[in-house]
Amino acid sequence: MNKKTTGVVWLRQDFRTLKNDALNYASKNHEYVSVVYIYKKKEFKSRSAQRWWLFHSLKNFKDKLDEFNISLEVIESESYKEAFEKILNKKNFSIYWNKIYEPKFLLFDKKISNSLKLKNINFKIFKGNLLNEANEIKKNDNTPFKVFTPFWKTAEKFYLDKGFHKSERIKSKDKKIKFLNQSIKLETILPKKKWPQKFENSWLPSEDEAIKNIKKFIKNELIDYGENRDIPGIQGTSKISPYLAFGQIHVETIWEECQAIKNKSKGYRKYINELGWREFSHSLINYFPEMLEGNLRKDFDNFPWQVNAKHLNVWKKGMTGYPIVDAGMRELYETGWMHNRLRMVTASFLVKHLRIHWQEGEKYFRNCLFDFNEANNVAGWQWVAGCGADAAPYFRIFNPILQGEKFDPDGRYVKKWVPELLNVPREFIHKPWELDKDVKDFKLGKDYPKPIVNHVAARNAALDAFQKTKKKSI
């Protein structure tokens, strides 16, 4: 390899300098290094919140790379194929990137690899942001796992047997160069609506912030994570998922920080298992790519989903009349994130109380979540709907009243996101329709909506629909 050639790093979901194999390799083997990000505007059209995160990620990562004398160029293109046509016309370069474990990205890796070989251009593709490669974990009979517990038991041992990946920081360059000598204005990425301005107070999308947050969480909150992870009114989770989605931190870094703890608590095991679910989701979509387009369990193809634009709209706005559901949906819209317990509750309400297709919910979460990731989002929605792998059975229907009373008993979370209920007494906070007395500044149906469906009736209708679906599939 000629060190005088430019080492080009194709940046995708790798906004970090620590454990970035492609960037590290280029910085060690080339005198000049340039990082290129291809912005596919069409792809982010359905991911509005992530455009805000992407803008700040690029801006902060550019500043970080400046410290190493490495440039960051952002080009806009309709497709990766179109962008690579420009890149392949350049001379005297080698190109490197890290994998994204989604079928469409892995397929493109194969196609562009052939083009690079034909042009005799040096390239190298590195492991992405998982503990194991997505296709490494199988059962003894060489078939993929569909149940989480045996999958994770096997995957965790496999990773431990390999040994930890050594952490290396990238090497600074003597001179900064630009490979393409073109870059769009980053501000064009930002959504035009004012909605994302609210995010400024809650998030700082950078590698340094990701490292700081995970260290703080492990030091202060991990020990009680097993219990506190289900209580949305307190800071009981790491909220590291958006940083993982954009690669501001590698999952191996999180793993290693957790391993450094001397006394492993129940919270440690629960948290490590959450990393396992992320691995499981990526394994599923690669072994069963059909689940990206529809139900993994084909018997659900006969399920009588309801088409109800009014119900879907009030669910999105957090105006269903069920306080814990509405609080979760409003938190999502206001912050680009939602507590995991509430993700299950709000999703269950959509697919079981309203019987609206899980893909409608998946689409809305994709648009609003900072931590949207195709594997996690699709697998999570199918888990709740009962049509995925190791899914919650369809007849497990979250009772939004009991969920609120159990996990938000004082109404702290609800009152934060549904301030209309501030004066409602504690015993009625999760069922304000049962109020038997007047409350200051509150009138049901005026200040806050009545429930759009009756819980018992909706539950019975869902179970009836499920039973009919089972009979059809026999």
Characterise the protein shown here.
- This protein is α/β, with parallel strands linked by helices and 474 residues long.
- The chain is built from 18 helices and five strands.
- Helix 2 links the parallel strand 2 and strand 3.
- The longest helix is centred in the middle third of the chain and has 22 residues, at 266-287.
- It starts with 5 loop residues before the first strand and ends with a helix.
- The model has no long low-confidence stretch (mean pLDDT 93).
Overall spatial form: globular
In what order do the strands lie side by side in the largest sheet? 3-2-1-4-5
Largest sheet, in brief, is: 5 strands, parallel
Q: How much is the radius of gyration in Å? A: 24 Å
Task: Give the structure's gist in a few sentences.
The chain has 474 residues and is an alpha/beta fold. It has helices at 21-29, 48-66, 80-88, 103-118, 148-162, 207-220, 225-228, 241-245, 251-259, 266-287, 309-317, 323-335, 340-353, 358-368, 374-385, 400-407, 412-417, 455-473; strands at 6-11, 32-39, 71-76, 93-98, 123-126.
Task: Outline the fold blueprint.
Elements: E1 6-11, H1 21-29, E2 32-39, H2 48-66, E3 71-76, H3 80-88, E4 93-98, H4 103-118, E5 123-126, H5 148-162, H6 207-220, H7 225-228, H8 241-245, H9 251-259, H10 266-287, H11 309-317, H12 323-335, H13 340-353, H14 358-368, H15 374-385, H16 400-407, H17 412-417, H18 455-473
Parallel strand pairs: 1-2, 1-4, 2-3, 4-5
Helix pairs in contact: 5-10, 10-15, 12-13, 13-15, 14-15
